[in-house]
Amino acid sequence: MAFELRWQVHLDQERLARLRFLTAGGRSAAVTVSSQKPYTFMVSWLDVLRSPLSNSDSYAYPPHSEQVCELFDQACQRLEQNF
User: Fold this and answer.
1) Is the Cβ–Cβ distance between 83 and 53 less than 8 Å?
2) Which of 15, 34, 56, 58 places its Cα 20 to 30 Å from the Cα of 77?
3) In the chain, which residue ranges form alpha helices assigned H by DSSP?
4) What SS3 state is found at 24?
5) Antiparallel, parallel or unpaired: β 59-60 and 52-55
């Protein structure tokens, strides 16, 4: 899905800076959309081997910018708490 590739367009400048900072060391942030109805999406942080480090809760798809930002913040907080 295009959303899974372009979800960062929903982030403001502060969140984009946080994304750049947290991707240091090979981590990456990704959005996944469920393949079954009702469709939901969540934000995850992955390590260099693409194993999950933290996940947000999920929201109904299609997303709104506020939801993407909220889930991004949630996944970041969980990542920072764990590492």
Assistant:
1) yes
2) 34
3) 2-6, 13-22, 65-82
4) helix
5) unpaired
